[in-house]
């Protein structure tokens, strides 16, 4: 019969607990601080205290506070972009455009704090710092371009058409976020998108 010492020697070593990567841990800490107190609650010192990694390590991965916030937004909005890529293109660019608008709207309402951060101009904000948002913008413009080429877009001003679409969707999101009515977006989204289509699209190709 094996002795206690032999049993201890032959016992399997416990597997180490799975750990998230350093960048993931840093971003999780940053996101938690953002949701708790907004941009002003985030500092390299506080993030370091929250995640346990040193300030030099955080600077190495993200550069500075602005880089941290942009990385948090990119990680979250990458999920939205994946949803947009999952939409079936089909042969109707108008329907495809509408589905992208719905995905963006729903995602913004699910993530109001991130949406506010993305759309609020910060003094240290860097253009193109959230690639997923820029790619989503490009996808919408591409769909508008397809409508223009097939003759169903009511204007040749592609940038203007994008701004009209963005203004309506952003306005609907903002209205929902300041309202106490939880059913507001469900009640208005189809009406808003119908209104956009009536204004931007011709019923038949030119």
List the SSEs and their pairings.
Elements: H1 4-10, H2 22-37, H3 44-51, H4 55-62, H5 65-85, H6 93-110, H7 112-119, H8 131-150, H9 158-177, H10 184-200
Helix pairs in contact: 2-3, 2-5, 5-8, 6-8, 6-9, 8-9, 9-10
Summarize the structure.
It contains 10 helices and no strands.
Q: What can you tell me about this protein's structure?
A:
This protein has 10 helices and no strands. By secondary structure, it is mostly helical. It has 2 domains: 44 residues, Homeodomain-like (Arc Repressor Mutant, subunit A, Orthogonal Bundle); 134 residues, Tetracycline Repressor, domain 2 (Orthogonal Bundle). About 7% of the residues have low confidence.
* Tally of helical segments: 10
Q: Helices and strands: which structural class?
A: mainly alpha
- What profile does the largest beta sheet have? none
Query: What gross morphology would you assign?
Result: elongated
Query: pLDDT average, as an integer?
Result: 84
State the helical fraction.
Answer: 55-70%
The number of domains is: 2
Determine the CATH superfamily of the largest domain. Tetracycline Repressor, domain 2
Q: Which runs of at least 5 residues are low in confidence (pLDDT < 50)? A: 4-18
Count of distinct strands: 0
Question: How do the SSEs run, as a string of H and E?
Answer: HHHHHHHHHH
How much beta, percentage-wise? under 5%
What is the first-to-last residue Cα distance? 92 Å
């Amino acid at each position: 019969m094996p002795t206690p010492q032999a049993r201890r020697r032959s016992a399997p070593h416990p597997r180490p607990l799975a750990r998230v990567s350093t960048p993931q841990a840093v971003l999780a800490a940053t996101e938690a601080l953002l949701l708790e107190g907004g941009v002003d609650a985030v500092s390299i010192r506080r993030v370091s205290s929250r995640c346990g990694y040193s300030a030099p390590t955080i600077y190495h991965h993200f550069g500075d506070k602005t880089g941290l916030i942009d990385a948090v937004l990119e990680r979250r909005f990458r999920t939205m972009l994946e949803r947009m890529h999952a939409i079936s293109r089909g042969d109707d660019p108008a329907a495809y455009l509408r589905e992208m608008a719905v995905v963006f709207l729903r995602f913004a309402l699910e993530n109001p704090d991130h949406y506010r951060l993305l759309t609020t101009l910060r003094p240290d904000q860097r253009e193109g710092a959230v690639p997923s948002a820029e790619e989503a913008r490009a996808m919408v413009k591409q769909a508008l371009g397809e409508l223009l080429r097939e003759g169903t877009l009511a204007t040749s001003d592609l940038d203007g058409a994008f701004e009209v679409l963005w203004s309506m969707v952003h306005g609907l999101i903002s209205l929902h976020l300041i309202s106490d009515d939880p059913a507001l977006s469900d009640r208005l989204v189809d009406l808003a998108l119908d209104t956009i289509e009536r204004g931007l699209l011709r019923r038949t190709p030119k």
